[in-house]
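Hello forum,

I keep getting stuck at the same step: I have a sequence, I want structure tokens, and every attempt I make locally crashes halfway through. Rather than fight my setup again tonight, could one of you with a working pipeline run this one for me? It's a single chain of 200 residues.
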Amino acid sequence: MRFTTAIVGTVIGYTWCIVPIFGVKRWLGMVPIVLVLALSFWRALQRGEWGLNRSHFLPALGWALVFTIPVLVLTYGVGMFLETIQGRDHLLRDFIFLFLWACGQQFALQTVILREAQTLFSDGRAIVAAASIFSFLHLPNPFLTPTTFLGALVWCWIYSRHPNLIPLSLAHAAASLMILTSLDRSLTGGMRVGYSYFLL
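Reply #2:
Ran it on my machine without issues. Output:
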């Protein structure tokens, strides 16, 4: 679990130590992102797993749709009920950005955190462990912490059977965009994690 430990340490160090001192700065936030991706690439080079198995793309996409479509419908329905639906001026641009962000998260979650957990636990327990770690990194946001746990459970379950990151990243991005367009910041905590959650 050495790569997982390094990734968790990097994220926690930034969100709970660096942000309280320097605040939320975009250029500074790039540092932990680069470090996490570098650690993930390092492990991928060692293990030869990049999460892009072409034969598993369609099965992974099918399962991702099964789980994601109800989430999109439910989220939009809640937004309609709460009257918090909001338009976005650059929907496609936002989706592309969220997709790239999701690719990075899924790459680290699946090829590092899940795979290292599978060296210690049975498949089912490894999925729960990986989802718990992913959720832990979204504390103390009371909206993101449980939703990322549930999301990671599904994504890790799919990846453990059909190792292709692209469908999971598409589902991740679609769910994120629906949350941003349907729910108010007062409910989502501005999608912030760590100390930045308290800076809203």
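The mean pLDDT is 94. If your local run keeps crashing, start a new thread with the error log.
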